[in-house]
């Protein structure tokens, strides 16, 4: 039988592990199924409230008034923020999340109504809006969701040709956030939530490039001067950013483990990572999966390891069944990647053995 918090406190006190005074009341944790039921009840209740708002909006022509929609949406977000600040109860938290998401939809609709005036910059505005929510809203799930939307809006803001370039920038930022997760303990929870959101952004936007027909639009803003300069090089720049992020991750792990940069073991690891990046340039997403897996290993984060493993296996599976590439070419590419990985492992084991001797 499991002990209550009070019984556990008394047991630890008797064993001499705890010497502090017992608090008047210890917080109790409800079973997961109770939390799930309460969360479901909160979402159900909030859906009824939203249905009432929608019906009232149609009855009073609220849905046709952009200013009224925006004000109502912002009011819902402020209300959700107030609830999240004052209560951490499961029901209140989930109710506030649903209200906030509805408010975001109401704010987004009037903005997208002006898409004919330039969808690119409207998506940038939405990205900034959700980034502010990710920083301000005092809830982990909300921050993950908002930062994921912020990265997604920014990735699609300038069209498909720019997407891999922006994804590379987001990946560099994500790598830096994860590898410096413990630098500022005061803001660690916020940084971790934003890191998760941006990681999901990179994984999902990379997956969307596998299905070009799902992209909302494929043209970039030709009025931007950088478009003329960078358009022939965007793919290469994006791949270079992903490669730089991967090499920085490997170097950071080696430095954390006490290996010098120009030691044989470090050089072998960096060259191996570079070989993986080059070999997987035509196989969309594998570098991203490997990089997320490395970040999970660097921070002992099983969630990241799981995300990286699932992403990598999904990208490999998609590439293997891709009809645009012949089976012979796909088999050769995957064979080369496998040989490189085995060679890296063999060389590092040999170097480690020589070093220890």
From TrEMBL:
The keyword Cell division does not apply. Pfam families: DUF4401. The lineage of its organism: Bacteria, Pseudomonadati, Pseudomonadota, Gammaproteobacteria, Cellvibrionales. Keywords: Membrane, Transmembrane, Transmembrane helix. It comes from Sinobacterium caligoides. The chain crosses the membrane at residues 32-54, 66-84, 90-112, 119-141, 161-181, 193-212, 224-250, 262-281, 301-321, 333-351. Residues 31-347 form the DUF4401 domain. InterPro entries: DUF4401. This is Uncharacterized protein DUF4401.
């Amino acid at each position: 039988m499991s002990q209550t918090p009070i019984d556990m406190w008394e047991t630890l006190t008797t064993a001499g592990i705890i010497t502090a005074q017992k608090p008047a009341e210890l917080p109790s944790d409800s079973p997961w199924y109770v939390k799930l039921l309460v969360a479901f009840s909160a979402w159900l209740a909030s859906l009824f409230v939203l249905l009432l708002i929608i019906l009232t909006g149609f009855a009073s022509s609220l849905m046709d008034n952009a200013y009224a929609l925006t004000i109502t949406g912002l009011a819902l977000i402020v209300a959700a923020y107030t609830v999240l600040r004052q209560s951490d109860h499961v029901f209140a938290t989930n109710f506030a999340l649903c209200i906030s998401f509805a408010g975001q939809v109401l704010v987004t609709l009037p903005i997208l109504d002006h898409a004919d005036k330039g969808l690119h910059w409207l998506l940038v505005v939405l990205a900034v809006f959700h980034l502010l929510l990710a920083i301000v809203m005092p809830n982990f799930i909300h921050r993950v969701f908002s930062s994921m939307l912020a990265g997604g809006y920014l990735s699609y803001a300038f069209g498909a040709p720019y997407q891999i370039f922006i994804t590379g920038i987001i990946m560099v930022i994500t790598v830096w956030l994860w590898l410096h997760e413990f630098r500022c303990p005061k803001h660690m929870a916020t940084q971790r939530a934003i890191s998760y959101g941006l990681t999901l952004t990179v994984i999902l936007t990379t997956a969307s490039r596998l299905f070009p027909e799902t992209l909302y639009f494929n043209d970039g803003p030709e009025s931007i001067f950088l478009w003329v300069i960078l358009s022939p090089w965007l793919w290469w720049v994006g791949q270079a950013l992903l490669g730089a992020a991967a090499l920085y991750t490997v170097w950071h792990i080696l430095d954390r483990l006490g290996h010098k940069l120009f030691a044989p073991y470090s050089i072998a690891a960096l060259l191996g990572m570079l070989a993986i990046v080059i070999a997987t340039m035509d196989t969309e997403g594998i570098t991203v999966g490997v990089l997320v897996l490395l970040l999970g290993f660097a921070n002992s984060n099983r969630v990241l390891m799981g995300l990286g493993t699932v992403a990598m296996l999904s990208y490999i599976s998609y590439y293997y069944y891709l009809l645009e590439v012949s089976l012979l070419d796909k088999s050769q590419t995957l064979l080369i990647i496998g040989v490189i990985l085995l060679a890296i492992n063999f060389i590092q084991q040999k170097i480690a053995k020589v070093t220890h001797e």
